[in-house]
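Lest this sound abstract, we let one protein speak, letters for residues, whole numbers for local backbone shapes, and leave readers to judge:
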Amino acid sequence: MDNIIEIKNLKKYYRYGIRGIGIRALDGISFSVGDGEVFGMIGPNGAGKSTTIKILLGLIKQNSGECLIFGKPLSNETKRNIGYLPENPYFYRYLTGHELVAFYARLCGMTYKQANISADKALDIVGLSDARKRPISLYSKGMVQRVGLAQAIVHSPKLVILDEPASGLDPIGAENMAKIITHLKDTGKTILLCSHMMSEVEKLCSRTAILCNGKIASIGEIDKLLQIDGTTRIDLESADDATLQKITEYAESLGVKTLKKTSAKISLDEFFRRTVGGNK
């Protein structure tokens, strides 16, 4: 699989004050994102996630290290194939959803006709066709996030960079955003997802990098990172206490140690969606 993003030993320092005291934002991070992959980048505040994104987009310069997109240094050509949704997007609130997305399409070099067609397609993908003529000022938080995603994909980029796409959304809004991201992956987009929502990253991403203090604390396939070595989980249906006791005794007779017995549970997010969805 070809790499869409390659970051090698990236370092970035900020200086402040009269004496120019340095703050280490990135301390030699390296990772790659494959073609068609949804890659997660997570970490606490100040870990270096936003700095990495800004370097990728050419908004700031690194002090050292290499950053390649589509196998090349960032250029106007590569920028045309990148879509970006910032963490807290702010749009012209007096514009309608269609006018806003079409405006960004024109900024990407499309003709008036092409921009209108592409804007309608993007709004349809994010589920805002019915609200296309409504002013942004009347959009909910979730709708603003979705129209922000529409402007990021209106020019059909190969790489989409999402910085906290589910920020401020309720579980249902976050679920809708996850479905859209999955659709983008299914259409061949490569996605770099930066998020504080662990459940979102676990659900959507195949691999993740955990940043801490400007370094990569861990990186790899999520299933392998979360696996507890030497343990196996078995979910049983319709097993009463007596049956569970027999199973436990038999397992122990084979030398298998029972560490914990609990009822299988769904996540709180899933419980919320089921409860609210059933009362609409």
